[in-house]
Design brief:
The protein is α+β, with helices and mostly antiparallel strands and 186 residues long. The protein has helices spanning 51-62, 84-91, 105-115, 121-129, 156-166, 174-183, and strands at 6-12, 23-32, 35-45, 68-72, 75-76, 80-81, 95-99, 134-140, 143-152. The protein has a 7-stranded mixed beta sheet, with helices on both faces. The radius of gyration is 16 Å and the shape is globular. The model has no long low-confidence stretch (mean pLDDT 94).
C-alpha cells in the first residue's frame, strides 16, 4: 500500500423532508492521503434506490487514479441504501463503509419494513450484501476511538492500515470528514 493512497469518500448532504424536495446531493471527495485532490457531486433520490449506481458513475469518472472507496455508512438520503457488493463488482476497487457507532440491525430492518411495506426487500438485501460489521480503534486527538466498518475487496488488517494513512485527528478518513462538512452546508 502506498504511503499516500488515493481514496474517494462519499457522504450525503443534509435535507429536509418537509421541503418537498425529492433529491439531495451526494458529495464525493478525492484525497491523496489526507490532501484534497478533487470534489465531485451528483443528486440522489431521497429514500430512493439510485445511490449505488450514482456512486459507480462517480467512481468511474475518477477510476484511473482512485485506489480505495469510502462511504459514510451504507445509507444516504434517508433510506437510499447502497449495495457495496455491486459497487465492488462493477468498479473492482476495494470499498469500506464507515460507521461511527454500532448499528442495531433489527431496528433498521423494522424501520424499513414500516416505512416501505411493499418494497423493503431490496433495501434489506443491500444491508446483508454489506457483510459483517467490524470494529477497530483509531488514534484521534482525544485518544483511542472505536469505529465500525463493512468491507468488500480488502482484508480487515489492510483496512486498519489504510485508516492510519487517511485519518488525521478524527476517526473518520479525511475524505469522509470533508464530504460530511460540505454536505452540512446544503
Amino acid at each position: 500500500m502506498k504511503e499516500n493512497p488515493i481514496v474517494i469518500g462519499f457522504d450525503d448532504a443534509t435535507f429536509n423532508l418537509k421541503s418537498g424536495s425529492e433529491t439531495t446531493s451526494l458529495i464525493g471527495v478525492v484525497c491523496q492521503g489526507v490532501r484534497i485532490v478533487n470534489l465531485i457531486k451528483t443528486e440522489i433520490k431521497i429514500d430512493g434506490n439510485d445511490g449505488t449506481d450514482k456512486i459507480i458513475e462517480l467512481v468511474r469518472q475518477n477510476e484511473k487514479h482512485v485506489q480505495f472507496i469510502f462511504t459514510h455508512t451504507i445509507t444516504f438520503g434517508g433510506f437510499n441504501i447502497v449495495d457495496l457488493e455491486k459497487i465492488f463488482g462493477e468498479v473492482n476497487k476495494p470499498i469500506i463503509a464507515i460507521n461511527e457507532r454500532k448499528v442495531d440491525l433489527n431496528s433498521v430492518i423494522n424501520a424499513l419494513e414500516k416505512a416501505f411495506p411493499n418494497n423493503s426487500k431490496e433495501k434489506i438485501q443491500n444491508i446483508f450484501h454489506a457483510g459483517n460489521l467490524y470494529q477497530t480503534n483509531i488514534h484521534t486527538a482525544g485518544g483511542l476511538s472505536p469505529i465500525y466498518f463493512h468491507r468488500k475487496g480488502i482484508e480487515v488488517k489492510e483496512v486498519e492500515l489504510l485508516l492510519q494513512k487517511v485519518c488525521i485527528d478524527s476517526k473518520l478518513p479525511e475524505c469522509l470528514r470533508i464530504a460530511h462538512l460540505i454536505g452540512s452546508l446544503f
